[in-house]
Predict the 3D structure of the following.
Amino acid sequence: MTPRARRGVNVLMSWLAALAAGLVVLPLLMIFAFLLWQGASAVNLDFFTHLPKPVGEVGGGMANAIVGTLMLLALAAVLGLPVGILGGLYLAESRDRRLPWLARFLADVLNGVPSIVIGIFAYSVIVLPMRRFSALAGAFALAVIMLPIVVRTSEELVRLVPASLREAALALGIPQWKVLLRVVLPTARAGIITGVMVAIARVAGETAPLLFTAFGNRFWHQGLDQPIAALPLQIFAYAIAPYDDWHRQAWAGALVLIGLVFVVSFAARLATSGRFTGVR
Amino acid sequence: MADGIVVRDLNAWFGNAHVLHGIGVTIAPKAVTAVIGPSGCGKSTFIRCLNRMHEVVPGARVTGSVRVEGLDVYAPGIDPVQVRRKIGMVFQKPNPFPTMSVFDNVVAGLRLGGVRERSVIDEAAERALRQAALWDEVKDQLGKSGVSLSGGQQQRVCIARALAVEPEVLLMDEPCSALDPIATAKIEELILELRSTLTIVIVTHNMQQAARVSESTGFFLLGELVEFDVTRQLFTNPRDKRTEDYITGRFG
């Protein structure tokens, strides 16, 4: 191949790679643009501060659904994160071969289980015994969906912590468990937070598992053992309803939901860009 | 009563590989002992057996006995944590904790060991940093990240970190191999100052360094301690042909 031809191929391949990179972000940009076009007009102060109006009345908002989604996410994080992070730590640090292998395999399988199946599971273990739909059941379903993502990213990031740091800490006469909790985990912190945010963003838009767990609610929530509104549920209900005003609100809800995910991801980036961070 | 380190019939394995063969040696207290030998001869493994760090590696195994300042390191019921508190260790590459400030690095052993009193911690930090000849350089940047310092300073932070828990023995595993000559000279100066208070064992690839800082030297080859003697004796008049070949540069 002549140098000229080689340069030509080089330029061509560079452009192809750049094009591929562009295609990756294109869907997100298009979704954003489409949502802005369809939903921006219905996003106003009322949307954030008012409850849904009764059928037939124009106006109102999704304040209860926004609060409900935030509560569901917070509760799911409380339920899922400690288990997920400590589980990941175990998978990364255990010297045993078989149990971690099995747990890792099952976590990957769980990651592939359709979310509606997880919803059915939450329905049978929480909704049926409690005899009512509840925020708790919804959060439990979301936590189960988060679990494998958090476990696997935590494991990967704990593995990235250099062995030399563990050795330094052990050689100081610090007990193993303290080495893990006070040296290894903080070093992996930035990356784990990123993984946690990915997991939260992933479940923020889950609709199917909430259908028969959180159920939805047209009013402010009345406690964790009661049905609770959530943005994806509200969007679903409004989108399939026969009213134009509801359709507009469904678009607005979708825009707010994606904006929420965006803000959460961005905040996570900011929170982890400090000086004293370890691996990411 | 300080009685140094007494090693008897020490064997070590990585899985099936037998890497240390029946090592027996007595290391003098409050003195510097150098351990030299070609790469892979077991010298690092040897010092890692002294503070039970060898067993941290999966599949690693040790037999034999080690007594450090009267403590039977491998006696049943002895917790490795307890052994490592008495024996500080400095590694080949500087390894300050990246999530901690200089100050927090130095006092990590104390804090994570359960010491709470602010005054005790502050005092220990200053003492250790002075001992590591680093106080004047970093006293105004104690809050900075440990990894923001130069390589030589980082290594002295690691030395200060090891000294802050007041160990009786300091093990150094090629502490200068990642440093430039000026930083190396500073660490060597430091070793000479510390030897009046501590028992120091230093592994080094650099024979001039062994000659400069140590009173006694052991030469390891293929997992055996070939020769152990007063440093000057070993370098000027070795008894074993293999030691002579190594120190005159005929191999290794």
In short: The domain at 5-247 of chain B is CATH 3.40.50.300 (Rossmann fold). Residues 118-131 of chain B form the longest helix (14 residues). Residues 32 and 200 of chain B are 5 Å apart (CA to CA).
